[in-house]
Amino acid sequence: MSSDSNPLEGADLGDISADLPEMDDLLKDLGIEVEINDAEADPEADAEAAVVEAVELAGKLEAERDEYLKMAQRVQADFENYKRRVDQQNLEFRARAAEQLARELLPVLDAGEAASAQGMQDAAAIYSQLLSTLEKQGLARVAESDVEFDPNIHEAVMHEEAESEGDTSVVAEILRTGYLWNDRVLRPAMVKVLG
After folding, report:
1. Confidence band (pLDDT; 50, 70, 90) for 100?
2. What pLDDT is attached to residue 163?
């Protein structure tokens, strides 16, 4: 036989089948895995194995899908929380900016109030319009007398003893108007206290 010819050519197949287990052991010793198709393989067993493998694969894919779904839901929730937090911070920033503007306008309001008290009609009209506009945005005047003294919104600079003994101190006179901005004190009212 030449080296190029097929070694199985002319061989008896019965002899080869008898040598297969021996050759299989030899190949395993060499680390070579060989799969021999058995003509008598059971097609039902192969089909069952394929179904079991498909079911296992489907289970793995379903678990992976669920994991990705949960991750997407967490990312969505994190984004919603971030968006809500940023919106809240923007609202607080605008509120602080408006409060700062109102605080910086207090000297203008004081000048307008003084001009109005002096009878200057032109200045009184401007003062009234400015005060009205700021009140629509959240400004409130603290300028009432004969009310109970509240140290949160009043600053007592003068004190006068009451004729009768009472437990409460009362605002007798407003010396400088105070202002609140959305229920926060911009400037306490400077007052004379009786009591």
Report:
1. very high
2. 74
Which pLDDT tens digit goes with each residue over 17-35?
555 566 667 667 766 665 5
The two structure tokens encoding residue 182: 């959305």
pLDDT tens, position by position, 36-54? 555 555 778 888 888 888 9
Domain map of the chain by residue range? 43-101, 105-137, 140-195
Among 144, 143, 110, which Cα is nearest to 127's? 110
- The three-point CA angle 82-86-90 to 5° equals 170
Q: Are 194 and 162 in contact (CB under 8 A)?
A: yes
* Residue 189 CA to its chain's centroid (Å): 39
The count of other CB atoms within 10 Å of the CB of residue 154 is: 21
Report pTM: 0.57
Fill in the amino acid letter for 79. F
Alpha-carbon dihedral sign for residues 157, 162, 166, 170:
negative
Residue 121 belongs to what H/E stretch?
helix 121-137
Structure token digits, residue 118? 């002096």
The confidence score (pLDDT) of residue 166 equals: 66
* Distance in angstroms (rounded) separating the CA atoms of residues 40 and 185: 95
CATH superfamily of 140-195: Head domain of nucleotide exchange factor GrpE (2.30.22.10)
Separation of first and last alpha carbons in the chain: 133
